[in-house]
Amino acid sequence: MRRSLAARLALAAGLGSFLLVLFYFQSSLSPDGDRSGVGIPSYRNRIMLVTQWEPICEDGDLPLKVHKRGTTTPLAVKSFQQGWMVGDSEDGAMRSTWQGKAGRSPLQALYESYQFEQSTLQAVHHQRRETLSNVCNRYTRKRRLLQRDDLRHLVVDDTHGLLYCYVPKVACTNWKRVMMVLTGQGKYQDPLEIPAHKAHVPSNLRTLSEYSVPEINYRLRSYLKFIFVREPFERLVSAYRNKFTLSYNQAFHKRYGTKIIRRHRQEPSDKALERGDDVRFEEFVYYLVDPRTQQEGPFNEHWERVHSLCHPCIIQYDVVGKYETLAEDANYILQLIGADTTVKFPASSKTTRTTDDMTAQFFKDISPFYQRRLFNLYKMDYLLFNYSIPSYLRIR
Q: How far is CA 252 from the centre of its chain?
């Protein structure tokens, strides 16, 4: 009996030693400073993000896990207002590259300003963040996983400590121009000197998806994150006008127009099926609410919902700008980063802009049934960014 007990104890001790050695060996495979973003997940690379739902990034192609507040991680990071504990040498090296003349990052400049009496503009932005947070808390129940591809719309400015989630049809061309000036190290001086097509060349700006997991975590918790939004149906009509009514957008006509006409037009002509350049707005609406469209994958970015492009219930945006107050909100951000006074956000064109009255005309011939279905599709954007149900809709 004693021999049997002694044998069991020896076996348990041996197994414990083996597991200890194995754990040590695995930990050594993921050293600090690893930029590859692949390999075995290491506790040293887990970082708590300062966001509303506080995602945690893991190494490699694993998704970014979402944890609620109050959870603990091997590496604790305090909220920005309280300061943070540096996780590795990468933090210290990067921090000095983007602090402004006053030694403060844009994120510090934003939240430190709330220690004093708020201006009207600060109060507006505070209310937008509160609305966003409340809607997320109310309607977000599922803990979805954030993939690396979800970060493709987040443009990075390491010089000023900025993350900008671009939303097509919400002045994103001009914002990309401004970001090229800010990150160009003197190569560009005036945003309007940059041709529009050049602003959309992927190699001209880096997105967050291109960084390693530790670098992603660092930027998400330390950089000023901002987004610009627009009345959802006005943005949708703007996308339709730009992509389906202009002759030069043949790529969209071929890829989407031909499919829309084939599925949603009775007895289409051979010419329409071949060219796809005369899609009607009601056919576009039918295409959007068609279950087959949603089963085929994400929408094109020009009519994709903002909450699906920028994930505002996972990533906590510090500034929510609006197309309706574009100039004012853009100047607010440029002031926060301490940008040179010569960097001006380009004035928007009033001649070709899609307005609320114009949007109402497009919806005039859409039946209440399809208006309701379309509204349900974009409902979260209306709620998250506090837009009222348009008066021209017949869905009440």
A: 24
> Distance between terminal CA atoms of the chain?
81
Residue indicated by tokens 């403060």: 104
Low-confidence ranges of the chain (pLDDT < 50): 21-96, 98-101
Tokens read off for 350: 């009033």
Report the C-alpha gap between 195 and 333 in whole angstroms: 23
Burial 93-107 (b: 16+ CB within 10 A, else e): ebeeebebeeeebbb
> Which residue pairs, CB below 8 angstroms and at least 24 apart, start in 199-206?
199/173, 200/173, 200/176, 204/176, 204/180, 205/155, 205/156, 205/176, 205/179, 205/180, 206/155, 206/156, 206/158
Bridge partners of residue 87, in order along the sequence? none
The side-by-side arrangement of strands in the sheet containing 224-229 is: 154-157, 162-165, 224-229, 319-322
**Backbone phi, then psi, for 162, in 5-degree steps?**
-125, 145
pLDDT, residue 110, reads: 85
* Residue 5 phi, psi (nearest 5): -65, -45
- Phi, psi torsion values for 255, nearest 5 degrees: -75, -45
- Residues linked to residue 163 through DSSP beta bridges, in sequence order: 156, 225
d(CA 34, CA 36): 6
- Predicted TM-score (pTM) of the model is 0.76
Torsion of CA 279, 281, 286, 289, to 10 degrees: 120
Note whether 25 and 35 are within 8 A (CB): no
Write down the pLDDT at residue 25.
Answer: 41
List C-alpha distances in Å: 143 to 55, 72, 151, 154: 10, 17, 17, 21
